[in-house]
Structure formats: structure tokens, C-alpha cells
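Tutorial sheet, problem 5. The two components below are modelled jointly, 226 residues in total.
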Amino acid sequence: NAGVTQTPKFQVLKTGQSMTLQCAQDMNHNSMYWYRQDPGMGLRLIYYSASEGTTDKGEVPNGYNVSRLNKREFSLRLESAAPSQTSVYFCASQTGNYNEQFFGPGTRLTVL
Amino acid sequence: AQSVTQPDIHITVSEGASLELRCNYSYGATPYLFWYVQSPGQGLQLLLKYFSGDTLVQGIKGFEAEFKRSQSSFNLRKPSVHWSDAAEYFCAVDPGGGADGLTFGKGTHLIIQP
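Model answer (C-alpha cells):
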């Protein structure tokens, strides 16, 4: 039982490049989330998927797109990376019981 | 506006001393409340949670938190800290009990002095 896994762990991009962050969970959770963590800002919600086939914007969605590929997988795409997207990205999934969220180990992204 | 406030950015505590980390929220009704811990370079781990009932909740690693409705607070406590407790601590809120994500405070960085 791996929980929530994320790939890659680290990534360096140049401004304008694109990339996709992958997330998968093996806990059969319906809801999945993408957050970004910046120093002194806590975690902020980018996008979420309440169930397979649905996605919704969170607090900071600009510059990102998501795909809920199936119940297990939820990917985050940066179409044209900008230095402001330098951050640590966390994926999470949520149980149906009292909304407890389980987090992946994070992806540290640097955009030059 | 709805918000979660952790007033202390950094806290330094001596090993063996007691600890209290503060969290205040601003929501119309009582939300679901959580404390998470993040060790350096790691993801977030749930320490404890409150939904209803007994206002004093016990968590993992010897932590507890008390919900005070009158103060809109959910402070985290530990009677005696260990060096391994050095980490970042986040208070989080789910205002609606649905699937639309948590709102996090900005975190408190805990430093343990020997």
C-alpha cells in the first residue's frame, strides 16, 4: 500500500517550457487535490477533483490545467512555465470519512 | 473573508518543555479542523482532527488540541517536546465538510533547543 505517490520528485524548467506532474493513489479515494507550497504562504489549493470525471478550480488555478485520468490518477500540467510557478507541489487524496486528506511526498519545481 | 490564522511564524522551545501552537479561524459555522506536521523535505502527516463532540482531541506522537468555539480557536499542545518534534506545523480547516479542499494557515516553524 503506497498511499499517494508523485513523480517527479525534482524538476528544473526554463521559462516557457511545459511539463506534467503525475499523482496516483491506491486508497480508492474519490477526491483528489493539487496544492502548492510557498515559503510563508502555507499550502494553497490549485485544483481539485471531487470524483472521477470532475475537476474544479481552487484558490490559485491560473497557469495550470488538470486531468483526472481515472479514479487513481490526477495530473497537473504547466503549459508554459513561469518563474512564479517555482514552488513545491503536493498532491492529496481524501477519504469519505470526515474529509481526512493524505498527502504525497511533493515535487520541488524550479523555473528559471 | 474566511481565513485560518497561525499567529506565530517561529517558536523556539527547550527539549522537555511544554508546547502550545495557536490557531484561529474565521468561519460562520464550526468547520472541520485539522493539525498537520511537515518534517523537512517531507509531505504532510495528519496529527489530529476535530469534527464534533469532545472538544479535547488526542492525536499521534503525544499531541492534543482543544477546540474553543467562543474563541474560534484550535490550539495544539504537547506536555513535553522531543528534539524529533522540530518541524513545520499547519492548522487546516474544511469549512463545508465537502470535497472542495482544505484551507491552511501559513504554518508555525518549531525549533527545539537542547
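Marking note: Chain A touches chain B through 28 residues (CB under 8 Å). Full credit if you identified this.
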